[in-house]
């Protein structure tokens, strides 16, 4: 099946019960789903609350046959909750269970039932009352009800003003001011909550960085979803592990992106040209820093040799093809930065200043609008991987990548629809290289550069510098 059996079962029970009978029923459900790709449906958490005054059982309904499969054993008692995971569009039946004393339901010879379907929203709560009526709420309905309550308060004040014979223009002005104050208050509360959660996330990320870099046995993070990219130019297909998929923050791990011959060509071009790597100095220039210890060499792409099969031109072309495949920005090679050969060397566990790259952002990661001509995406291609160390971390997103030769990590940090930048989810680092060598090829991709106004016309603050031609 390509996944755990539990992933094919529509709901995973959180209550204890008769495991043997439930296992048999789950096998029936599993067999009915072989031809349907349920594992691709979004997972949703549900809470079912029984306030009906009776015992209730819950059944999953097969989508075509409507055959019922019991999901609760024991039953859900009055006043109890049942927690489970399910999938969008799955339908369930809540059914009254006869009394153990009389073997009758509340209405003789008629056991009441009600059905509900899992929707696409979060925080879904299904409550059944004494009339066996369902109330299905989620994060959107709660927000809508809250907004309605706020509006009703303002409307009530407006009605009282009208009854007091105030002028209509004054009533409208007061109503507008009331709604404005309430909206401002709500936005302030939301902003404070987001800021607090961001601080917590960043503090946790610092610990994540420390522990993941120190654990040499830790595997790469599990992808959210796997896709296939068909490169029409080279007629090749590549497995893509989507690790993060947000409008302004995407992280993909691509298999077999760079060939051995292409790696060799980059290493040969870098021989004799390696220099100590630099970082932005915060004043528009660059400087050396202990935050980045590596050797690097910029390799100019000779595009006039592309048609003759030049390996270095082929690398860069594939980068732009993939970036455009994901972002739709239609970026070309004109005015872009050179390919960069970057090399790290391990010196053992006792090295107090190992080759590494501390957490940083390749572009702006403040959530501000994109500055014309600055970076929007990066692809890091792995040619030589170390024996220990050298993993790539996206600590704010909880993503850990243990590189393999030929793989590439793509990450973009601008929303193509709004042009707003990432808010730190693509901040990344290169863990210390302890044993062996790490040799990568990096292409930073910019949006807005041209042949007439190339990348080097912009300083490290993203400001366009005057031309002295």
TrEMBL record:
The keyword DNA repair does not apply. The keyword Acetylation does not apply. Its cofactor is L-ascorbate. It comes from the Eukaryota. Residues 336-447 form the Fe2OG dioxygenase domain. GO terms for cellular component: endoplasmic reticulum. GO terms for molecular function: iron ion binding; L-ascorbic acid binding; procollagen-proline 4-dioxygenase activity. PROSITE patterns: FE2OG_OXY. Keywords: Dioxygenase, Iron, Metal-binding, Oxidoreductase. Coiled coil: none annotated. PANTHER family: PROLYL 4-HYDROXYLASE ALPHA SUBUNIT, PROLYL 4-HYDROXYLASE ALPHA SUBUNIT DOMAIN-CONTAINING PROTEIN. This is Fe2OG dioxygenase domain-containing protein.
């Amino acid at each position: 099946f390509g996944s755990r059996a539990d992933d094919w079962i529509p709901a995973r029970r959180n209550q204890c019960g008769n495991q043997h009978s439930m296992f048999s029923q789950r096998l029936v459900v599993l067999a009915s789903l072989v031809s349907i790709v349920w594992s691709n449906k979004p997972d949703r958490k549900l809470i079912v609350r029984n306030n009906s005054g009776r015992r209730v059982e819950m059944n999953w309904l097969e989508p075509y046959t409507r055959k019922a499969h019991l999901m609760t054993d024991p039953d859900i008692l009055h006043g109890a909750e049942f927690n489970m995971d399910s999938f969008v569009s799955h339908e369930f039946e809540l059914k009254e269970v006869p009394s153990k004393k009389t073997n009758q339901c509340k209405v003789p010879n008629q056991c009441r039932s009600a059905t509900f379907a899992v929707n696409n929203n979060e925080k879904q709560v299904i409550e059944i009352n004494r009339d066996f009526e369902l109330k299905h709420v989620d994060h959107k309905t709660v927000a809508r009800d809250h907004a309605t309550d706020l509006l009703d308060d303002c409307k009530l004040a407006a009605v009282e003003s009208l009854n007091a014979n105030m002028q209509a223009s004054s009533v409208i002005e007061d109503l507008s001011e009331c709604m404005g104050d309430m909206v401002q208050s709500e936005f302030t509360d939301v902003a404070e909550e987001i800021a607090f959660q961001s601080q917590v996330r960043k503090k946790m990320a610092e610990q994540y960085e420390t522990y993941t870099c120190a654990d040499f046995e830790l595997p790469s993070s599990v992808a959210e979803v796997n896709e296939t990219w068909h490169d029409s130019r080279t007629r090749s297909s590549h497995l893509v592990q989507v690790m993060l998929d947000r409008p302004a923050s995407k992280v993909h791990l691509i298999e077999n992106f760079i060939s051995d011959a292409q790696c060799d060509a980059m290493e040969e071009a870098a021989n004799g040209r390696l220099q100590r790597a630099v970082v932005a100095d915060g004043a528009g220039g660059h400087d050396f820093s202990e935050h980045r210890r590596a050797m690097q060499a910029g390799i100019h792409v000779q595009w006039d040799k592309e048609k003759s099969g030049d390996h270095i031109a082929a690398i860069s072309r594939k980068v732009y093809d993939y970036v455009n495949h994901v972002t739709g920005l239609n970026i070309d090679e004109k005015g872009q930065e050179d390919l960069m050969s970057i090399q790290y060397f391990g010196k053992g566990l006792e090295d107090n200043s190992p080759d590494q790259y501390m957490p940083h952002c390749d572009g702006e990661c403040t959530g501000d609008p994109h500055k014309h001509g600055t970076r929007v995406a990066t692809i890091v291609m792995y040619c030589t991987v170390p024996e220990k160390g050298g993993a790539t971390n996206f600590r704010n997103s909880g993503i850990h990548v243990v590189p393999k030769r030929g793989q590439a990590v793509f990450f973009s940090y601008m929303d193509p629809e709004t042009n707003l930048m990432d808010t730190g989810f693509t901040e990344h680092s290169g863990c210390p290289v302890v044993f062996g060598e790490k040799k990568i090829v990096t292409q930073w991709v910019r949006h807005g550069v041209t042949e007439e106004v190339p990348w080097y016309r912009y300083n490290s603050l993203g400001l366009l510098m005057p031309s002295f031609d």
